[in-house]
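Below is how a single chain appears once it has passed through the pipeline. First comes the sequence as given, then the structure the pipeline wrote out for it. We keep one example in the README because the format questions we get most often are answered faster by looking than by reading.
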Amino acid sequence: MALSTIQNNSFADTAVHGRRNLIINGAMQVAQRGTVTGVTSGYGGPDRFVFARSGAAAVDMSQSTDVPSGSGFAKSTKLDVSTADSSLAAGDYALWAQRFEGLNLQSIKKGSSNAEKLTASFWIKSSTTGTYILEIFDSDNTRQVSASYSVSTADTWEHKVITFPADTTGAIDDDNANSLTLAFWLAAGSDFSGGTLNTSWAANTNANRVVGQVNAVDDIANNIYFTGVQLELGSDATPFEHRSYGDELIKCQRYFEKEVPTWGTPRNNDSIIHSSGYFKVQKRASPTMTLIGDVYNNSPAIQQSNLNYYVTYDVTGADTSLNCTFDADAEL
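Resulting structure:
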C-alpha cells in the first residue's frame, strides 16, 4: 500500500524554523570582556551589546545569573548605574543597543515593495517603572521608527513583544558597515523627546525619537537587566531561538576576540622578534589590537593586521623571548 501524501502545508507553515533571530548573543551567553565598570560609551558584559550616552550617566556592565524563572535562560545583561544623571540636559541620553552589518540584513528587503515587518521580543527587569522606548535606526538612509512599552512593576522580570512596520523606502547597503541599530533607550533629554513619537518609518527628526521615555539612570541604586532579545522577520514573535554557546561565540568573535596569543624568539641573534598568527574567526574589519598581557615586559607592537591574521614585532636584546596577548576589536 502506497504511503499517503500530505496535501497541505499546515505543518510547514506552523513549524518554528532555525536561524530566525537577527540578534547575536540574545541569550547573553558569551561575555568575553567580563565586567566593565564606569562605562560611558562602549562594550562590556555580554558581547555585541553597547552602551552609549551623552551627559553624566555611567554604568557597570556585567553578565548576571538573574533571569526570569522557567524561561530557559541562564544569563542576562546587568546595567548597574554607577554615575547618575538625575537632571537631564536637553542633549543628554542613555541607551543600550546592538548594531547590525548591512550584509546580514538583506532578508528584510527594506526599501522594496516586499519589505518585511520586524518583531522584537525580550525580557526586561528594571528598578524604574514607566514608559520606555525601543527604536530601530537606519544609518544608511537616516531613517527611524520607535515604539513605546511599559515596565509595570519594579525589579520584576517582564516579557515584551513589539512589531515594527515594514519600510519600503531606503535599501540597506550590502556591506560590513553599521546599517541598523536596535536601541533600548534608558533616558532622553528634550532634544530627543520634545516632539511626537514617530511610530512609522520616516526621515529622522531627533525630537520625535524618544517621546515619553522615563529616566532610568537617575539614581545609582538603579539596575536594568535584559535577556532573551530576539529580532525576527514578520509580525509574530516566535519562541526564542536558543543557539549553542559555540555558535554564539563564533558569531561574537567576528567583532571581538579575547586574548589573541603571540610568541617568538630572535632569529640569528637578531634583536628584532617577529611573530604572526591567525584569528580564530575572520574579522568584520581590520581590528584594533590592544596589548593586555606581556610575560617578559617587552612592550611589543602590532606591525600589521587584517581580517584573518596579524604580525607583531618587538625590538629587544638577543635571546629574549616574546610571549604576550592582545585583544582584537572590530566592533561596529
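The radius of gyration is 23 Å.

See the next section for the split statistics.
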